[in-house]
Design a protein that fits this description.
- With 291 residues, the protein is of the alpha/beta class.
- It has a single domain, classed as Aldolase class I (TIM Barrel).
- It is built from 13 helices and eight strands.
- It has an eight-stranded parallel barrel with strand order 1-2-3-4-5-6-7-8, surrounded by five helices.
- The longest helix has 15 residues.
Length: 291
């Protein structure tokens, strides 16, 4: 079962915007070596919204191939079209992914019944472990705890990434899952507190930059060592802040590029980090000994 520090991996790109396959392989190897517990391929941090369907499938397959069973790979296969989400989820299963992460359909604002039927359709269509993903701040769609309680009744729904950053909501979602599915944080700044409430890990943006440190934080929190977990987290707390000074993944891709692990490249409509934030992000990287 999935737990611990699960990196929401960036998709490295060449200066022309094409996927940098060599850099992707190197990032997978680095995360394995650093102790990351699982890799989330082509989630929203991986710029899934601007990859073509063919590229999306290829990036999942490449990540699975490079990981080679050393760590689980969770494929981001969510979409605001149920049919597209099923297509991507089928492709992830065929590529050998260990699970899929399914963000709530964005923009079209389905009802709670629509969310239930969306996930019911995907669950019935593809026999692979599935993790829900609720991030209303980006999708304009909030999956309520009572809807989560209905969806986790499906045998292959094994978890939810809860990214509201609201601990009252996190506690309600943990209660709604009733031990049938695990709850993972999707908000680095509050991940420790969610794990101490009974969550099982963190699907992390910050782990792109400090994977070993995030793995250690998760181990301490999951062991119930609150003081140690909070102390370790305090050392990277500035990263949690500066990696969101502009829309994710703009700052984290800039940070990883500054560390020499990818190019400074994103796809429009995202742009490279604004110059006014360079010093702030660089200072956080220097403070953590990363550059």
């Amino acid at each position: 079962m999935f737990q611990g520090s699960m990196v929401a991996l960036i998709t490295p790109m060449c200066v022309d915007g094409s996927i940098d396959w060599a850099a992707l392989d190197a990032l997978v190897d680095w995360h394995v070596a650093q102790g990351t517990d699982a890799i989330v391929a082509v989630g929203t941090t991986g710029e899934s919204a601007t990859l073509s369907v063919a590229e999306h499938k290829a990036a999942i397959a490449a990540t699975v191939k490079r990981a080679a069973g050393r760590v689980p790979v969770i494929a981001g296969t969510g979409a605001n079209s149920t049919a597209e989400a099923i297509e991507l989820t089928h492709a992830a299963k065929d590529a050998g992914a260990d699970a899929c992460l399914l963000v709530t359909p964005y923009y079209n604002k389905p009802t709670q019944e629509g969310l239930y039927l969306h996930h019911k359709a995907i669950s019935e269509a593809v026999d692979i472990p599935q993790i829900l993903y609720n991030v209303p701040g980006r999708t304009a769609c909030d999956m309520l705890p009572e809807t989560v309680a209905r969806i986790v009744e499906f045998d292959n729904v094994v978890g939810i990434k809860e990214a509201t950053g609201d601990m009252a909501r996190a506690a309600a979602v943990i209660e709604a899952c009733k031990g049938k599915a695990r709850v993972f944080s999707g908000d680095d700044a509050t991940a420790v507190e969610l794990m101490l409430l009974g969550g099982h890990g963190n699907i992390s943006v910050t782990a792109n930059v400090v994977p070993a440190e995030m793995a250690a934080i998760c181990r301490a929190a999951l062991a119930g060592n609150a003081e140690e977990a909070r102390s370790l987290n305090a050392k990277v707390a500035d990263l949690h802040k500066v990696l969101f000074v502009e829309s994710n993944p703009i700052p984290v891709k800039w940070a990883v590029a500054e560390m020499g692990r990818c190019e400074h490249s994103l796809r429009l409509p995202l742009t490279v980090l604004s110059e006014k934030f360079h010093a702030q992000v660089k200072a956080a990287l220097v403070a953590c000994g990363l550059i």
